[in-house]
Amino acid sequence: MQIPQALDDNLVMTHDFIPEIEKGLLDLSAYISPKFLYDALGSHLFTAITLLPEYYPSHIEKNIFTQYETQISNAVGIGGTLIDLGAGNCQKAEFFFNSLKPSTYLAIDFSVDYLRDALRKLEGKYPDIRMQCLGMDFSKELMIPNYINTHKRTFFYPGSSIGNFLSSEALELLTQIKSQANDGGLLIGVDLMKEDSILIEAYDDPLKVTAAFNLNILRSINSQLGSNFRVDQFRHKVKINHIEKRVELYLEAIDDLTISWPENSRRFKKGELIHTENSHKYTIESIQQLLKKAGFETMQIWTDPKDYFAVIYAQ
């Protein structure tokens, strides 16, 4: 049960994550939800990842935004409320502030402290836009507060984050977005299928920033669970799952070890894996089918010349 608590002009959804974390760690094949990657440090590390030349999604998506800004803005329309899912440092949404001219900007992410810092920098630059932030785990349920204007809600979900969800989970989230967009729509970034070599470089970069991002989830879990994970006991591991059409991230135990937390523990053998993230890759046809199942009827699509990435506006 998520309990909203007033926070100045913002909102935080508090949640007891301990049962969910324990369930994953005690599973036969251990896993941790990728949302725990995005604590304050993890959010900064992911921002660094987006600057890496090997991480193509951020660069190509930005190029699409720049090349087709007028077309995208005409499709979305001016005014209303821009709702930024997984907002991070809010820079992607800021790109559209001048062209979309939203009256309200609602930034949503797992780490509300990181959002606050980002919004403080934006408020002075855009005094005509009402800035609000919301700390929410929308991987379970997306619930936009009633005080947020219901007219012309544009949901903004860039960066291919929809790929972190299984098909059934993605459908559920997109359905919830459709039901709360009212007369607005969804502007979404989607990573498309491509060769393994490009994917491996993107998710296991030479500077090991992605490895640090992945390993930091252990510190994030320690803060939630009171566990005794050490980042030097695991290594970053990437697999390409061709059957499921996705990149999979894991943490591999370097030696036999025992992780303990209040009232429980888990033994890991050398080489045993903790699954931390999926990144599904779509085709234009498969993402169109998914959006249609969620209730979206019309779509406008923009891609790069190599069809590595797609930006879609759906209503």
What is the secondary structure topology, with strand pairs?
Elements: E1 3-7, E2 10-14, H1 18-26, H2 40-50, H3 56-67, H4 69-76, E3 81-85, H5 91-94, H6 97-100, E4 104-109, H7 112-123, E5 130-135, E6 153-157, H8 167-181, E7 185-191, H9 196-203, H10 209-225, E8 234-241, E9 246-253, E10 257-261, E11 264-268, E12 273-280, H11 284-293, E13 299-303, E14 309-314
Parallel strand pairs: 2-5, 3-4, 3-6, 4-5, 6-7
Antiparallel strand pairs: 1-2, 7-14, 8-9, 9-12, 10-11, 13-14
Helix pairs in contact: 2-10
**Low-confidence runs (pLDDT<50, min 5 residues)?**
1-14
How would you characterize the largest beta sheet? Answer: 9 strands, mixed
According to CATH, what is the topology of the largest domain? Answer: Rossmann fold
| Terminal CA distance | 30 Å
3D structure, described in words:
This protein has helices spanning 18-26, 40-50, 56-67, 69-76, 91-94, 97-100, 112-123, 167-181, 196-203, 209-225, 284-293, and strands spanning 3-7, 10-14, 81-85, 104-109, 130-135, 153-157, 185-191, 234-241, 246-253, 257-261, 264-268, 273-280, 299-303, 309-314. Helices cover 35% and strands 27% of the residues. It is globular, with a radius of gyration of 19 Å. A 9-stranded mixed sheet has the order 1-2-5-4-3-6-7-14-13, sandwiched between helices. A 3-stranded antiparallel sheet has the order 8-9-12. The protein starts with a strand and ends with a strand. It is built from 11 helices and 14 strands.
Give me a quick take on this structure.
The protein is α/β, with parallel strands linked by helices and 315 residues long. The strands form three sheets. It has a nine-stranded mixed beta sheet, with helices on both faces. α2 packs antiparallel against α10.
